[in-house]
């Protein structure tokens, strides 16, 4: 049980990377500086009614101007890696459907300086090329429903790899393409806010293709750099062992996990998902040769994990429960799942309303390890939102987050013990930041940000994490 493992010190393998993660739109601000052009998240956050409180990333944590202080704070905490993402429209601000346009030296310089600052501090940069901030001009030409967006992404990846690949050991092509496709184009709760099922499935394929094209481009431009992708796999549990609940679980697993894992690891799309969605699209946008591109060799695999997914068959006898937040007749990200229900969970939840079960982290790591033996695994995000405040004594007491991190680190340790080759763990997130549709209302940071002054205060969880890093172990 969790308690049994927590009673002893959990030692991690030598050289294990201890990191924290962020994403460009969530922390940078400076949206009109350095030659940057708008992304879909600028447009979306500035559209009334889209983001809670009307919050935008215009200033965010002002990391663009404060990155040197932020790196110093990372060094103080002892982080050995930092995972950040690059804003595409800082690098090639004139990108359009027919070409990426000129490279913006100011954009390259910002990330180059960040990389140098990290290396000087002894912190390994892990770079995500796409964490949801598509240049608006590409969305105007179809966004991820257009094959040309995938082609432009490959060209952008080549530019970044050529500029930074001598100093960046790890490139992650995409962060959570499930969110880009289904939250962006089916449920519309993320930018660009479209609600068209066929568009979402088209986006799935073009995101997968973008990954493959970028992987090849990185290899060509930066032969020593390593290539990974990050997926938000779901730990899907049917509520009962009834065949109908099992079928609900199969379909959710198909849409969130196998629609990405199968092409990337095995060069195929899952036939059951193609069949289930045949009424929405005939998948004719998958062209000959695409699956070979998508299944390009990988050096590592990134898993983001937050919460379990419990599903059951909806009997239609009472209103549907949508514990995933897509109730009230809102558009759903779950295509061809009209009879799938996400039952409301009991027990402790984070401030997002997400239930807590670290077993999913162990299970998902073991699943990928079994599907691709020997593939190096990284937990590229894991963490929790709680409504933290700075106390009168200047401290932030977030024991709930410490408990979350402790039990999830124990879950990673267990996966390693059972043979999963996990080499890195990144807490989401380094700083409180712009939490997408929730704006600044949700705090995921191990470092508190006062949005009035932008002052940073390490929380208790940051001090706990520093302790973990010092000992390369989770203390008893
Ligand atoms: C990650 O997304 C992101 O990479 C990161 O930028 C973000 O800040 C962080 O997690 C915290 O949210 O969406 O209603 O269907 C995680 C996004 C959260 C998407 C859980 C799927 C399931 C409920 N995932 N979500 S719903």
From TrEMBL:
Q: Does the keyword Hydrolase apply?
A: yes
Query: What species is given as this protein's source?
Result: Pseudonocardia humida
**What's the protein here called?**
Beta-glucosidase
Report the InterPro entries cross-referenced here.
GH, GH_1_N_CS, Glyco_hydro_1, Glyco_hydro_1_beta-glucosidase
Q: Which family does it belong to?
A: Belongs to the glycosyl hydrolase 1 family.
Reaction catalysed? Hydrolysis of terminal, non-reducing beta-D-glucosyl residues with release of beta-D-glucose
Q: Check the record and name the Pfam families matching this protein.
A: Glyco_hydro_1
Hydrolase among the record's keywords? yes
Q: What is the lineage of its organism?
A: Bacteria, Bacillati, Actinomycetota, Actinomycetes, Pseudonocardiales
